[in-house]
């Protein structure tokens, strides 16, 4: 029996639903589309939700028009159904990661059991409350399909869900994923794991300086880099400037001056973060005496380096710490495009040039290439995995 105790707390739905084996939906099933759109409407009409930009972004993503556009990509598919129960284990560094994982599972036709981090995020509580209200009113038919809960990392419910699920979806740090993988999994179940990654940004200095509104570009960089305190996988840790040095210097001054201004009212890093960042710089300098520290405050601590290396990235500590360099070509990125590299944000470079660079380089990493300001936007293809295809099964006619 799945029953509430002091270490297992339901947030959305009912724990008794976890005992049921619900029939799968087709992908992009109509009741799921209507539920997510109703959730979007409730969130957009709730004044409390407006305080959280990430919650507003999720509400916008769940709009009916957007989801139906996504569904059109699958109009030519044969019969495709969810793989049964999708068991999601979500991280503690991004408050609403669980919401997108849940939405993807529902759109793929699965019933979803979602374990949230034990960290208390007010926007997550609000979202769970709004979902629960819908499930106990006009969407009672979906009540057995959606259960969100919190529990200790060693609670037996995790092992039971792992044994029962058809899909196990793991988000988090490498060690957290290793721990969950020790739990038994059904032989026919599939597993999707989204482990620790990092992202990079490349900006053409000339294009940045000639932009009609470089301050707005700086705000887009800030939105990418400082999301979740720079701890999200999508947040750039390294910045490559392309162009002549004089232009790069001018662009750097403009960008970081604006970032400092934005941080004054939005970022809140503690003194301990300042100590940690400077400690990491000392470790970096021991490896590479050519690097320099550049920091006007605790908000943006920049490590200026002649070359980007994996060793420097391993010493990154978040909370506004950036590796920064300049070069004439994209080849300067090659040393850090290993399998842990997730997203490449860019401005001022033609997509054809980026495609040719990646085609030639064939890097082990980079699963997403997005314009500056777009790194946090969720897609149903994530880390190179088509979530709908991976969480569903096709019935093939021959």
What does this structure look like?
With 398 residues, this protein is an alpha/beta fold. The chain has helices at 30-45, 53-61, 64-72, 97-107, 122-135, 156-164, 174-181, 205-210, 214-225, 245-266, 271-287, 310-314, 351-361, 387-390; strands at residues 8-12, 80-82, 85-89, 111-116, 146-151, 167-171, 190-194, 198-204, 236-242, 292-295, 301-304, 321-327, 341-347, 368-371, 381-382, 385-386, 392-394. The chain has two domains: 8-196 and 383-394, Aldehyde Dehydrogenase, Chain A, domain 1, CATH 3.40.605; 198-371, 3-Layer(aba) Sandwich (Aldehyde Dehydrogenase, Chain A, domain 2). The chain is built from 14 helices and 17 strands. The strands form four sheets. The protein has a seven-stranded mixed β-sheet with strand order 10-11-12-9-8-13-14. Strands 1-5-4-3-6-7 form a six-stranded mixed β-sheet, sandwiched between helices. Helix 1 crosses helix 5 and helix 9 packs across helix 10. The longest helix is centred in the middle third of the chain and has 22 residues, at 245-266. It is globular, with a radius of gyration of 22 Å. The two termini are 42 Å apart. The model has no long low-confidence stretch (mean pLDDT 94). Keywords: NADP. It comes from Faecalispora sporosphaeroides. It holds the Pfam family LuxC.
């Amino acid at each position: 029996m799945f029953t509430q105790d002091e270490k297992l707390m339901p947030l959305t739905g009912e724990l008794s639903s976890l005992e049921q084996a619900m029939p799968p939906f087709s992908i992009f099933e109509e009741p799921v589309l209507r539920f997510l759109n109703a959730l979007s409407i409730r969130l957009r009409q709730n004044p409390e939700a407006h305080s959280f930009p990430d919650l507003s972004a999720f509400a916008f993503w769940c709009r009916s028009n957007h989801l139906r556009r996504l569904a059109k990509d699958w109009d030519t598919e044969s019969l495709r159904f969810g793989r049964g129960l999708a068991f999601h284990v979500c991280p503690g560094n991004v408050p609403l990661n669980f919401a997108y994982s849940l939405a993807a599972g529902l759109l793929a036709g699965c019933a979803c059991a979602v374990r949230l981090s034990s960290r208390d995020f007010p926007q997550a509580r609000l979202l769970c409350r709004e979902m629960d209200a819908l499930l106990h009113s006009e969407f009672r038919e979906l009540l057995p399909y959606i259960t969100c809960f919190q529990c200790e990392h060693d609670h037996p419910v995790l092992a039971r869900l792992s044994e029962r699920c058809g899909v196990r979806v793991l988000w988090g740090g490498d060690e957290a994923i290793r721990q969950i993988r020790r739990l038994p999994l059904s032989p026919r179940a599939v597993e999707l794991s989204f482990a620790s990654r990092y992202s990079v940004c490349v900006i053409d200095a000339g294009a940045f300086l000639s932009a009609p509104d470089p301050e707005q570009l700086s705000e887009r960089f800030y939105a990418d880099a400082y999301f979740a305190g720079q701890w999200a996988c999508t947040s750039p840790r390294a910045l490559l400037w392309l162009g002549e040095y004089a232009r790069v210097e001018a662009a750097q001054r403009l960008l970081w001056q604006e970032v400092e201004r934005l941080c004054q009212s939005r970022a809140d890093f503690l003194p301990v973060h300042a100590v940690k960042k400077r400690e990491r710089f000392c470790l970096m300098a021991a490896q590479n005496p050519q690097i320099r520290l550049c920091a006007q405050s605790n908000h943006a601590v920049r490590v200026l380096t002649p070359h980007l290396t994996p060793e420097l990235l391993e010493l990154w500590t978040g909370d506004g710490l950036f590796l920064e360099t300049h070069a004439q070509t994209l080849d300067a990125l090659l040393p850090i495009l290993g399998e842990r590299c997730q997203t490449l944000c860019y401005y001022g470079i033609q997509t054809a040039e980026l495609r040719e660079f990646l085609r030639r380089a064939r890097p082990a990493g980079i699963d997403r290439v997005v314009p500056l300001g777009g790194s946090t936007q969720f897609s149903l293809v994530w880390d190179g995995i088509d979530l709908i295809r991976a969480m569903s099964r096709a019935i093939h006619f021959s």
